[in-house]
Amino acid sequence: MNSRERILGRVRRALADVPADDPPYERAVPRDYLREHGERTTEETVELLAENLADYRAVVHRTGREELPTLIMRLLDAHGTREVLVPDGLPPAWLSATKARRVEDRATDTPDRLDRVDSVVTGCAVAVAETGTIVLDGSADQGRRRISLIPDHHICVVRVPEQIVGSVPQALERLDPTRPLTWISGPSATSDIELDRVEGVHGPRALEVILVG
Predict the structure, then answer these.
(1) Looking at residue 22, what is its pLDDT?
(2) Residue 169: CB partners within 8 Å, gap ≥ 6?
(3) In a domain, 8, yes or no
(4) Is 138 exposed, middle or buried (0-12, 13-18, 19+ CB in 10 A)?
(5) Could you tell me the CATH number of the domain that includes residue 113?
(6) How far apart are CA 55 and CA 49, in angstroms?
(7) Is residue 17 part of a domain?
(8) Cβ(209)–Cβ(160) under 8 Å?
(9) What are the residue ranges in the chain where pLDDT is below 70?
(10) What pLDDT, on a 0 to 100 scale, did the predictor assign at position 55?
(11) Does residue 94 belong to any structural domain of this protein?
């Protein structure tokens, strides 16, 4: 008997006394919690997202679609970016103004190679106002999960208002649970026992979020 058979055997024994007419999990567990805390207009939801992103020490920018390429160029230049990592499906216009060398998202690149890239630019799947969280799901404009975790500087573009929701339950309704979801609330950070904050431990040291609309 291998480990898989042993584990499944334990599960079957634990479920042996469950009645045949027992309601399925999705109906047995009550889900009467609030989907959103209070009512907000679209503008108020966007403001709340910006406030909570900043509270997590992300840098928030706002721009129109036509000005987006220029803003991205300025942010990359300010960071001193020589190489920028680009997901396959990132709209080409977003980087049309930048002079930094583009590095494609390739499965063959090693973590060491990605660590030498200065910045990465991605889109997002959804942004949650109440928690100041952006979610990536590996879509074409976001690339593999690792490209948002290894480079030191992450620029994430959020389309306003279509990609912004008020709460986590509303975000989950939009997301496919079979996709590789990455939930990001500010730059990577941790604290030691004396509460000294250290950024860039498990991901980018700098997170810049652009609200485009």
Answers:
(1) 84
(2) 33, 35, 36
(3) no
(4) middle
(5) 3.40.50.10420
(6) 10
(7) no
(8) no
(9) 188-189, 191-192, 194-195, 197-202
(10) 93
(11) yes
